[in-house]
Amino acid sequence: MKQKNLIVRQLFEKESSTYTYLLADRESKEAIIIDPVVECIDRDLLLIKELSLNLKYILDTHVHADHITSSWTLKEKTGASIALGERSGATNADLLLKDSQELSFGSFKIKVILTPGHTNGCTSYAIEDMLFTGDALLIRGNGRTDFQEGSPKELYHSITEKLFSFPDETVIYPGHDYKGLTSSTIDEEKQHNPRIGGGKSLEEFSQIMNALNLPNPKKIDTAVPMNLKCGKA
Ligand SMILES: [Fe+2]
Fold it and tell me: pTM score > 0.90 for this model?
């Protein structure tokens, strides 16, 4: 069974409640990391070394506003290529990904799905029966739409027409969780997501999003400029 050869590690950064994912082909040892955080680089590099992995791609789901990516330093230390969505506006990336583009590590394919709305450049990655959704779709929530070219209309389209078109049993691995939940499924979010589940209309979703009134993330002023350079100082 192919899936047996897939290593999946969900890693957590406490301060920003960010999930980082390390995936690898157990046979070829080729690996990718999604949304690595600068404070956790030593932990992540040690794990990569302990598992004897060769990091091929460093994927960011978007230009984050709440933490700084470790992409650039990881690239320097491992030689891996940095990739993120073509609409991210980021410099220093090796690859700017287009919708439906495919990448691979070992015998596994990564399908790129552009899912704008939280930010312009938001990108989800489909691997086997898993969807790494960044902040486009969270567990019982979704990314805010009030800065970085956020748009309730675009996010509604990304979630309902792109992500919700995956099979119901597809496992969602989000970019954050603030309640200790670790994964969900398409079916669960279609039913129970309070903002967009239960067949909510674009109008209902937009009303909810426009009434959130959230404070800005603490690190936004340093994180966004750094992340627009893929974390290069
Ligand atoms: Fe975000």
Answer: yes
